[in-house]
Amino acid sequence: MNSVQIIGLKEGCVLFMLSMIGFAPHPPIIIPEIGRGELSKVMKTVDGMKTLGSRIKDVQPDLLVIITPHGPVMQEGPAVLTHEQLSGDFGQFGFSNIQVKMRTDQQLVDLLVEETSFGSQSGSIKPVLLGENDSRLRGGKTLDHGAAVPLYYLQESGVAVPGVHITIGLQPYQELYQFGRALKQAVDKRGSSTAVIASGDLSHRLTPGAPAGFSSRGTEFDQLLVDLVREGRVEDILNIDQGLVEEAAECGLRSFVIALGMLDGLEFKPEVISYEGPFGVGYLVAALHPDQGKTSVYQDKGG
Predict the structure, then answer these.
(1) Which residues on adjacent β-strands are paired with residue 88?
(2) pLDDT band at 267; cut points 50, 70, 90
(3) Assigned CATH topology for domain 8-201+251-295
(4) Less crowded by CB within 10 Å, the N or C end of the chain?
């Protein structure tokens, strides 16, 4: 069994620096200026994102970790941007005037490198650090829409804090889960209250005309994942049938797995805020609230 890192004690309670995890979709159409007349078709998601932003504002985080599937994806491991200032806009959708930004917390980056270094207890895959002049980065903007859409709603809610931008890796889920566990250890050592956004859409095959074509298994995947999140069944999420995952053509599961690794050894309260799929793509908004001082429903046996 994994040990749970203890940061401090207050009146007999164990305190952790992870304050909250949010699962967020990233369709640009939920940005009011972009969605316009179509916005009414995604109001569950719009309202859900406003609720998620409010939840995160209420926990008053000092730092934010955002995990996206649409940044630079490296074969070696999850990519971490090291730029001092991250920025992005919605120019590819015709709205370059809508901008988001986030300052990188270099201390947290350094601690993540330390926690995943050779000889560390985590046994995790290592992050790939991408600096400002890295040839593997394309274009001048550093925040992809997978990060920019959730950040838009956080900034609208009054949450504008520094943090770390991470792009998923293509490693097996158990390795990504271990990376999340190392990330949690880095957050605890950093010693600042930290919220996490795991960005991702569910199946892209829910309806005829959906972006990836139609498959009845798309709805099956979405219903299963939403139920597993609602019930907090981490182990079952890690072991979803790969045939079903591939048939669903999702883009969120790896982001979610990294975030779930941060809850390893902790009890948490899951909250499904909203779900819908009006354009053939599943949009899940959820919040996972760590129960301070209580150990876990699920602990990974490896590592």
Answers:
(1) 100
(2) very high
(3) Protocatechuate 4,5-dioxygenase; Chain B (3.40.830)
(4) N
Name the residue ranges covered by the structural domains of the chain. 8-201+251-295
Picking from 209, 283, 277, 220, the residue whose alpha carbon sits closest to that of residue 248 is 220
Instruction: Give the whole-angstrom CA distance, residue 26 versus residue 34.
Output: 13
* Residue 122 predicted with pLDDT over 80: no
| Contact assessment for residue 293 and residue 11, using Cβ atoms and an 8 Å cutoff | no
Mean pLDDT of 157-180: 97
What does each C-alpha distance from 264 to 23, 28, 119, 297 come to in angstroms? 17, 32, 20, 9
12: left (phi over 0), alpha (psi -120 to 50) or beta: left
* C-alpha span between 153 and 158 (Å, rounded): 9
Tokens 């990504």 correspond to 176
The 10 Å Cβ neighbour count of residue 129 is 14
**What's the average model confidence in pLDDT over 241-269?**
97
Q: What is the largest CA-CA distance in the chain?
A: 57
Range in 1-15, 67-81, 208-222, 265-279 with the lowest mean pLDDT: 1-15
Residue 303 is encoded by which pair of tokens? 């590592």
Per-residue pLDDT band for 1 (boundaries 50, 70, 90) equals: very low
Does residue 8 sit in helix, strand or coil? Answer: strand
pLDDT score of 15: 60
Tokens 């838009």 locate to 152
Beta bridge partners of 151: none
**Mean pLDDT taken over the chain:** 90
Which residue, 154, 126, 176, is CA-closest to 66? 154
Strand (E) or helix (H) holding 276: strand 266-276
Cα–Cα distance, 7 to 97 (Å, whole number): 42
* pLDDT for res 121: 60
